[in-house]
């Protein structure tokens, strides 16, 4: 699926996402995620649905979407249950029962796995929510060196400013049965990812029997190298659209 959808029961991720490819008849965190769905018309291209993960929105995939549109893919679809492939872009690939909290600390190296979360997050109350469930914003300095390392400083600052928060209650939400057990998967692993350590991504990708592509990019690989991310999505679409 080259849809960056991140329904918690199936896909978990952070600022990057997962993609789903579906036949026309699904990602964002977690994975997001993005989903590519294949329309009913045999001549039509698969539809690409992108859902970004936490602390980001789909504008992060502007470079990828533009390339897919140029190649004749659409950039949105809803209500398509016939997903044919999954593409995880610097994202968690959870098994049943996994949580963001457990996955974030599974391998050392995440800049967000710290003893005192107040050093990396700013917290804000959510109106009407339980007091323990608050919105978490990544501190600007942490965002630029952790999520956007390698990107121009001015671009990283903008991304930090427009980030969307994550409700802390979602960190303990357990994943349901993973879609990757029945659906072919692809994984883009940024080897300079400081949010989800590459070792953790590779472990999860291997567990999901995903086709792995390593690129020299940070967590926001869809911004740093949109061409490489697009190519993986297209490869997944071509491999599963016949």
Structure at a glance:
By secondary structure, the chain is α/β, with parallel strands linked by helices. It has helices at about 60-70, 100-105, 140-145, 155-160, 200-205, 220-225, 225-240, and strands spanning about 15-25, 35-40, 45-50, 85-90, 120-125, 135-140, 165, 185-190, 210-215.
Task: Describe this structure as you would to a colleague.
The protein has 242 residues and is of the alpha/beta class. The chain has helices spanning 62-70, 100-104, 140-146, 153-161, 198-207, 221-224, 226-240; strands spanning 17-23, 34-38, 47-51, 83-89, 121-125, 134-138, 166-167, 185-190, 211-215. Helix 1 packs across helix 7 (226-240) and helix 3 (140-146) packs across helix 4. It is globular. 49% of the residues are buried.
- Proportion of beta-strand residues: 15-25%
| Count of individual beta strands | 9
- CATH level 1 class label of the largest domain: Alpha Beta
Distance between the termini: 14 Å
Q: From the 3D structure, determine the CATH topology of the largest domain.
A: Rossmann fold
Structural class: alpha/beta
What share of residues is helical? Answer: 10-25%
Shape assignment = globular
Poorly predicted tracts of residues: 1-15, 22-42, 75-80
Largest sheet: 6 strands, mixed
Taking all residues together, what is the mean pLDDT? Answer: 79
Tally of separate domains: 2
* CATH architect. name of the largest domain: 3-Layer(aba) Sandwich
| Helical segment count | 7
Radius of gyration in whole Å, from Cα? 17 Å
- Tell me the series of helices and strands, N- to C-terminal: EEEHEHEEHHEEHEHH
